[in-house]
Design goal:
- This protein has helices at residues 2-14, 33-36, 38-54, 118-124; strands at 23-24, 27-28, 68-79, 84-88, 95-102, 111-114, 141-144, 151-155, 159-162, 171-182.
- By secondary structure, the protein is of the alpha+beta class.
- The strands form 2 sheets. It has a 5-stranded antiparallel β-sheet with strand order 1-4-9-6-7, with no helix packed on it.
- The model has no long low-confidence stretch (mean pLDDT 91).
């Protein structure tokens, strides 16, 4: 899968200047990768949708029929050494995901998911922290290394960023947003 994804991304990048979103110094494709990414992109999108569906509950299904259907948009990111993505969220989506095609030779944690509640208790009482049943302090952020083949899925409202790439070559990843639309009824 990674070799096919790399090929379509490199081909697209060769003829496309990309767009500017949260990326700093890196290349960000349009969000139509599902259209131009071939079978490899479709395979990845279907796996992401399968996992998201297994982690989403609709307690108000009508007669056993889901009220919503999932949609997905995806895009590629190519980050040369020093490139990063500033902190952001994905409004309008339910789930977001990142899939790593190549770590760029940098195995340090780079994807940072941030607890949106973190500053609240610190404003009121800076020396107090939340702990779990085990007595361990709740982390205010979770970091993930860019391991090739890793798919990280998280709620779209979760603020996240990507630390600067420290590897000797380009890091290649694919980002996805899973959205919901009302389910279509009747014959298609």
């Amino acid at each position: 899968l990674n070799a096919a994804l790399r090929h379509v991304i490199e081909t697209r990048r060769a003829g496309d200047e990309g767009v500017q979103r949260s990326n700093i110094l890196g290349w960000h494709s349009d969000s139509e990768m599902l259209r131009w990414g071939g079978e490899a992109a479709k395979t990845l999108a279907l796996e992401c949708l399968r996992v998201c569906a297994s982690r989403t509950d609709d307690p108000k299904m009508q007669g056993g029929q889901p009220r919503f259907e999932f949609g997905i948009e995806m895009w590629a990111n190519v980050s040369p050494p020093g490139a990063s993505n500033q902190a952001h969220t994905h409004p309008g989506a339910l789930w977001s995901a990142v899939y790593y095609v190549d770590d760029g030779g940098d195995s340090d944690a780079s994807l940072v998911l941030m607890d949106p509640n973190y500053p609240l208790n610190r404003m009121y009482a800076p020396d107090l922290r939340f702990v779990g049943k085990d007595g361990e302090t709740f982390p205010t952020q979770q970091m993930f290394a860019p391991t090739p083949g890793r798919l990280v899925i998280f709620p779209s409202w979760l603020s996240h960023s990507v630390r600067p790439s420290k590897g000797p070559r380009e890091r290649i990843s694919i980002a996805m947003n899973v959205t919901t639309v009302p389910a279509r009824r009747g014959p298609r």
